[in-house]
Structure formats: structure tokens, C-alpha cells
């Protein structure tokens, strides 16, 4: 089938909007390259912007071995975060979701633009205003959360919603790579992880994102949110579930699943 990236983006955008499952796009377009998939992501963002949504940040995905093993894709990817994805309460409605999962993350909030190649952790610290506990909700549009690298990139790295904690912390509050995190569902621990599970240190995830974006002549803007990637495997959720993430020494963040 001749490959029209606009057409593929429209197809994916529709399924994202309607919360509908779809077949892997690589089944119809086996020659789709990762670069094409990022172009599709960009076109979907333009579609979202035309509906009044705006780009407020980026997420890194598949930054821990646990997550890579879970989905069988062995490299970090990025996705776009929009204003409509940010939750303004800790209640997540199942309406319009397919098979959501949640994962414990950290969010870096930038105070300066950051763009370039060979960005190192210290460049990231100089540009970071604060760090917040976060929970990301992912909901792949692909049946059974089954995809190739190209598919998942085209589907905006499964981005759906995210919740930020109310309390911001100084980037120098603690050694983020040493911080333990556990995620509980309905009072039972599901998974435990530590900051170093995220590319050795969550700050490295932000540096890697900037280096990846530079290849497309993109960068981070002051005020943007960056989700650094799940510390642990993601947890399936359904209506009625109560999620609690315990960030060692910082407190907890919770989410309730409603109809
Ligand atoms: O945030 C993530 O790590 C998700 C990236 C995409 C893979 C998935 O849907 O689990
Ligand atoms: Mg994530």
C-alpha cells in the first residue's frame, strides 16, 4: 500500500480521539520507519492543536528494563504531552479509555529552554526548576498493547493522561537515583523500583530526550513538563481501583478510577 503519512496520522488521531482499538499500522505499512513514525506523531500533534489542544511537554517511554521487557521494545522513545492530557483531579474516568495502565514517574519542570546535541545531566539541572511526583496513564490504541517500535512511536508512545503531585521539590532535594518507589493497587503492592531503574538516573532521561529531539531540530521550552519514564512495570487498572504511589521520603500520590 502506498504510504501517505497524513492519512496514517488521521487514522491514528481518530482512534486516539474516540478511544478505539486498531490494528498495528505496520501490518498495512511494513516498511514504515521510526523516522516516519515520529513524523506521524508530529502530524497528530498538529491535528490536536487545530482542535485547541496545546503542546505542554514531552514524555520519555521505555526507559527502564522492566518496561522494555514488558512490551518487547528495547529502546527509549518519546511522546508529546498536551494540555488535555493533564488531569486536574486525582479521579480518572474510564470513559473513552480502552485498556489503561498506570505507572509511577517523575516530572521535571523546566525554567529555561533546552536544545542541542550532547546534552549532559548538568545541562539539565541548570535548566530545571523543580521535580514533581507523577503518575502516567498509558492506553495503547493497539489491540492487546501489542506493537512494534514504529507502531508505538506513531501512537504517541501510548500517551493518554498524566497526574502531577501538588508538591514540587527542589532538583537538589535528594539523590533521585536512590529514591525507592512502590505502586499499590487497592492496598496491595504491585511493583517496586528505584530511580536508577530509569536509565541509571531520571535526569539522564531528560538529557536523552533533548538529544533525540535535536535530530528533528526540536527542543524543550521553559515551563514544559517532562515525564522521565516509568520506574516499574505498568499496572492494569479498571473502574473502582485505587492507586497509590509511595515516593520514598516525599510522600504519596493517589488516583481513583471512576466510571
Ligand atoms: O510510558 C511508557 O513507557 C509507555 C511507552 C509505550 C509502551 C507502552 O505502551 O507500554
Ligand atoms: Mg510512561
From TrEMBL:
<dbReference type="GO" id="GO:0005737">
    <property type="term" value="C:cytoplasm"/>
</dbReference>
<dbReference type="InterPro" id="IPR011234">
    <property type="entry name" value="Fumarylacetoacetase-like_C"/>
</dbReference>
<dbReference type="InterPro" id="IPR050772">
    <property type="entry name" value="Hydratase-Decarb/MhpD_sf"/>
</dbReference>
<keyword id="KW-0456">Lyase</keyword>
<dbReference type="GO" id="GO:0008684">
    <property type="term" value="F:2-oxopent-4-enoate hydratase activity"/>
</dbReference>
<feature type="domain" description="Fumarylacetoacetase-like C-terminal">
    <location>
        <begin position="90"/>
        <end position="254"/>
    </location>
</feature>
<dbReference type="Pfam" id="PF01557">
    <property type="entry name" value="FAA_hydrolase"/>
</dbReference>
<dbReference type="InterPro" id="IPR036663">
    <property type="entry name" value="Fumarylacetoacetase_C_sf"/>
</dbReference>
<protein>
    <submittedName>
        <fullName>4-oxalocrotonate decarboxylase</fullName>
    </submittedName>
</protein>
